From TrEMBL:
This is SnoaL-like domain-containing protein. It comes from Reticulibacter mediterranei. Gene3D superfamilies: 3.10.450.50. Pfam families: SnoaL_2 (PF12680). Residues 11-103 form the SnoaL-like domain. SUPFAM superfamilies: NTF2-like.
Length: 107
């Protein structure tokens, strides 16, 4: 699935920023008290920034969207590929409030 066809502009921008390794653009999408859960819980933008740098940019993570799993496009099935990190299938579940991401759960 082409990222540009995702229903949620917020999810689209997050995945594009992750794939393009644009840390500041990725972080601008998150509320200050947001949470990321990937087996470990990261609370707040400082912790999420460190996670993004280490677990995504640090291993050149690229996300290919396989399909949307809900009508709003906030849950996407993905195929991840990296150089030294996780590579394989997964699901990204996004939650937003007032135009910002408040939670990203990766399973």
């Amino acid at each position: 699935m082409d990222i540009s066809s995702l229903h949620s502009p917020l999810v689209r921008r997050a995945i594009e920023a992750l794939n393009d390794e644009r840390l500041d653009d990725f972080m601008a999408l998150f509320a200050h008290d947001a949470i990321v859960v990937d087996g470990t819980t990261y609370h707040g933008t400082k912790a999420i920034r460190a996670w993004m740098q280490r677990e995504n940019i640090g291993v050149h993570m690229r996300i290919h969207v396989v399909r949307e799993k809900d009508t709003e496009g906030m849950i996407v099935e993905v195929q991840a590929a990296s150089q030294g990190g996780y590579s394989g299938p997964g699901t990204f579940s996004f939650t937003a409030h007032n135009g910002l991401l408040t939670r990203l759960e990766i399973s």
